[in-house]
Amino acid sequence: MEFQKLVGKRYSVRAYDPRPVEEERLARVLEAARLAPTACNLQPFRIIVLPTKGREKELLRIYGRPWFVQAPLVLAVCALPDESWKRKSDGWNAAEVDATIAMDHIILAATEEGLGTCWIAAFDPDAARDVLGLPRAVVPVAFTPLGYPADSPPPRKRRPLADLVRRDRW
Ligand SMILES: Cc1cc2nc3c(=O)[nH]c(=O)nc-3n(C[C@H](O)[C@H](O)[C@H](O)COP(=O)(O)O)c2cc1C
User: Fold this and answer.
1) Which mutation among 11, 14, 118 tests ligand 1's pocket best, with the greatest number of atoms within 8 A of CB?
2) Distance from the CA of 8 to the center of ligand 1, in angstroms?
3) How many CA atoms are closer than 13 Å to the CA of 29, on its beta-carbon side?
4) Which residues pair with residue 71 across a beta bridge?
5) Is the CB of 67 inside a 6 Å radius of any atom of ligand 1?
6) What is each CA distance from 100 to 25, 45, 144, 147, 169, in whole angstroms?
7) What is the per-residue pLDDT across 63-96, written as a single tens digit (0 to 9) for each?
8) How far apart are CA 74 and CA 146, in angstroms?
9) Quick one: which of 47, 13, 73, 52 has its CA closest to 142?
10) So what's the pLDDT on residue 1?
């Protein structure tokens, strides 16, 4: 799909069809994350693929909205701050930015495949650690359901470009 069209097509899907996601589609979505840029190419992120069937109750501890477990899959993107690039001047750690870019590749690749997603950051980090068995050094950054949409896109609400872009200086 042409890129501007793809970006325009993506929206936060909050109702899903339970029909399975084909393995080839999932593979292409994951490959898009694999090719994401990361600081110094250190790739300090991991993706956990979670089938929802039979695990609904447990997954709802992570994020309690019923639509979170409607799709056949949930993906979790985690950052590895001990394995990421740190800026020498002030120690700033790129791990969560790297993980976020990987998630955005997932989201856009899923749109290309006709699949729905929704960024989820309002999850319970302790429940996520427990349910996913995350080691201490692993930071859960974002979740998304992955499945066929069962809703339609609402009208886009965005600030005008003139509010968002400055030229030359703040
Ligand atoms: C970092 C981030 C975290 C988000 N967390 C949640 C969330 O926890 N729950 C939710 O329903 N939507 C969440 N969203 C989706 C936003 O609400 C949504 O992207 C925004 O309202 C614009 O709507 P659109 O995605 O349909 O264009 C999140 C989006 C981003 C980028």
Assistant:
1) 118
2) 15
3) 30
4) none
5) no
6) 21, 9, 12, 20, 27
7) 999 999 999 999 999 999 999 999 999 999 999 9
8) 6
9) 47
10) 86
91: left (phi over 0), alpha (psi -120 to 50) or beta: left
> Tokens 């991991």 map to which residue?
46
**Ligand 1 binding pocket includes 7 (Cβ within 6 Å):** no
Does ligand 1 come within 6 angstroms of the Cβ of 11?
yes
β strands within 11-122, DSSP E: 16-17, 45-51, 73-79
Q: What residues in the chain have per-residue pLDDT under 50?
A: none
| Residues sharing a CB contact under 8 Å with residue 139, sequence separation 6 or more, in sequence order | 78, 79, 80, 81, 95, 96, 99
- Of 8, 4, 6, 18, nearest to 111 by C-alpha is 6
Domains annotated on the chain, with CATH: 3-164 (3.40.109.10)
> Which residues is 148 bridged to in the sheet?
17
CA of 13 to the centre of ligand 1 (A): 9
Token pair of 30 as six digits: 């994951």
DSSP 48: E
